[in-house]
Amino acid sequence: MSKEFLRARRPEHKQQRREAILAAARELALTSGVRNVSLGGVAAAVGLAKSNLARYFTTREEIYLELARQEFDAWETAVLARIGEASSPDAVFDALVDTLEERPLFCDLLSHSSTTLEHNVTVEAARAFKLRTAEALAKVASAVARARPDLTEEEARELVAAAAGFAALLYPAANPPPVMAKLYAEDPVIAALCIKFAPTAKRMLRALAAGLPTLRPPHD
Description:
CATH class of the largest domain: Mainly Alpha
Keywords: DNA-binding
Domain HTH tetR-type: 15-75
Protein name: TetR family transcriptional regulator
DNA-binding region: 38-57
Shape: globular
Number of strands: 0
């Protein structure tokens, strides 16, 4: 690593440093889970003092909120491609859920976004994340509405938001920590409580899609 990069005096060097920090935080989260990564751990992984790290990201939450924004980008691209290849209206549920299941880090970030990652961040970081989230959900909802003409645009938006919400809620439960995984393996009765993410999420989305049109206000 060059001295110029270490000092990060130029804009391109600062961008390189930000990308290095994000890459280190991503790797740590994939290995240990988002909740177990500290700001000090990210700083050590990238070779910076915590005080120097603050020049690029104010808090650990800000780092992971930026990673969540990037993950929304990747999910949007993947799910739009999958919906475009859908062979039937019901394939939309597979497209939404399978692309989430393929992204464990995204699901982990979603599970922490409203409870921790949206706390202790700057207004600018929160705004960037929320605007990107809204944009991604709107684009995916438009694709869902085209593939599912039985749903209005607003109903499609609710369906897509629910898919992300199910990922935040169900994915951690379906992928338990080691202690719980050991318990499930040892006790079949308790193991029945461990849900399967994809089948459960798809069933819930199907039920929601079937129910939403029944809630439309009556026409005059």
